[in-house]
Give the backbone structure.
Amino acid sequence: MPDQNYPPISPYWPGLAGHCPRCGKGKLFRGFIALAPHCDVCGLDFDFADAGDGPAVFVSFAAGLIVVGAALVVDILYEPPIWVHLLISLPLVLILCLGLLRPLKGLLIGVQYRHRTEQGKVEP
């Protein structure tokens, strides 16, 4: 997948920013989390990219850990009623999940490109 005309770049910052993993300039997404068919700068075809459910799983685990930890701290310190927990926790879960989903998907696609991973191939 890597091309001689493009020097290898780190998959981390372009992936988190939603840029092409080969040139680091083109857009990786055409919608919120829908991939573009190809890079509009270098022409890299994004058919190789398959993040699957990985980003959603990682984001939900991280958001759950943060929100449950924050809810426990708030409950121990202030002992608020349950409606206050819901008022604080539900928006926090939405903000964390939606805010982290796209950067993490871009990061996983960048790492896939960097390490030339392919679907369903086993080396002998």
Notes: The chain has a mean pLDDT of 90.
